[in-house]
Write a structure and sequence with these properties.
alpha/beta; eight-stranded parallel beta barrel; six-stranded antiparallel beta barrel; 10 helices
Length: 507
Amino acid sequence: MAMYSTRQILTTCVVVALSFYLSHGRENPSFKIKAVNLGGWLVTEGWIKPSLFDGITNKDFLDGTGLQFKSVTVGKYLCAEAGGGNIIVANRTSASGWETFSLWRINATNFNFRVFNKQFVGFGTNGNGIEIVAVSSTPGRSETFEIVRSSDDSSRVRIKASNGFFLQAKTEELVTADYAGESKWGDDDPSVFVMTIAGRLQGEFQVTNGYGPELAPGVMTDHWRTFIVEDDFKFISQNGINAVRIPVGWWIASDPTPPQPYVGGSLRALDNAFVWAQNHGLKVVIDLHAAPGSQNGWEHSSSRDGSQEWGQTDANIQQTVDVIDFLAARYAKSPSLYAVELINEPRAPGASLDSVTRYYKAGYDAVRKHSSTAYVVMSNRLSSDDPRELFPLASGLTGSVIDVHYYNLFSDVFNSMSVQQNIDFINTNRSADLSLVTTSNGPLSFVGEWVAEWAIQGATKEDYQRFAKAQLEVFGRASFGWAYWTLKNVNNHWSLEWMIKNGYIKL
């Protein structure tokens, strides 16, 4: 067994530490990233670029659209009794979770209906097989329906089952698929329902499955080619930004032939981003924004129907680690790689602390297998009461970073705030929040998402400037840095490009 002196050990530690800093341009340990997110590029978010969905046939009916159906004869809503695993009834006077049917799109005209407890609507096995139930955990032919809309009123629909007949509400307790013939769409027709769209998703699953395998590849390739270009990296580098945070989806690791409905090509776009970053002196944070099964049930994690199923099995966690391994191996040697974010916004309680910490440790090891210098970013769980719950893990891992997202939005508490109250909230509350996760001997802190937007109506340009300035000052105290959400957005204040060009933010 070799013996080493204290001096030799200390010298080795110093060399390793210097290597870590120097390889990241951290000759000055106080270096921090000032980044912008490239949201809506390699992971679709419809609100960022709504026109991406314009060419989809029957685009009202995308995966995850929540539909509610009120019988015109009974006057009450269809309902999956007990939330699923039982019959479909038509006896509810108001609509909520059990009365909302989530679409799985097969094509432009055929759909499955998924209910609250995740079963699919279909035929029952009792009697003559026409009674409608929600008991199957997987959809098949008997769980496939067509939605026929009235040409005079698109909210009036009939639902055609796979046996060729239409659903009808015979009574409040009996819904069957045995109505034949045409309809005059009157209130005396038990096969007519008034449809309400209760919610919709516009993520990567929706856009690719919406266009289908023939059209989606061309649409997405054109989007990736034009939405973010090298001139954007040039603009970023010339306006005080030194890094980009790039959201990616788990399917990128299977490029060029990812599982349907996803299409190949996003990996080539990410390769281009690394070249452009190097050309313009920018660092890159790769952010796994969408994990298999969805870590939060939202469109920006590519949930099919609002379900959150990530982290529930060891196989799912390992699949996610494999994505990180793929990305780290591919880009470890790029001088632009600055950090790998293991997952974005896992949401409690669905994403348990145990699952998240097990995954973070395995993901950290996957990055370190290929890079001893890239930072490893760990997003705090949303809806958790403890902003420091990752500290026991992260504090023992060199080059670890805790990511927090701060918005003066998405909570009723902000709806009645004035301009000054919003600014005071940043200076007081957000400052205190950030201090909790910014320590001298723990992981670094990163405000990975923030925006100069709020619930204020009619705010002046000066109001926005003051709000942005307050956030820049407070979030500038994060020991790793910050990233604005996002570079481009049809909603102006969410676009850092627009904010800079119009004088709202100056860096």
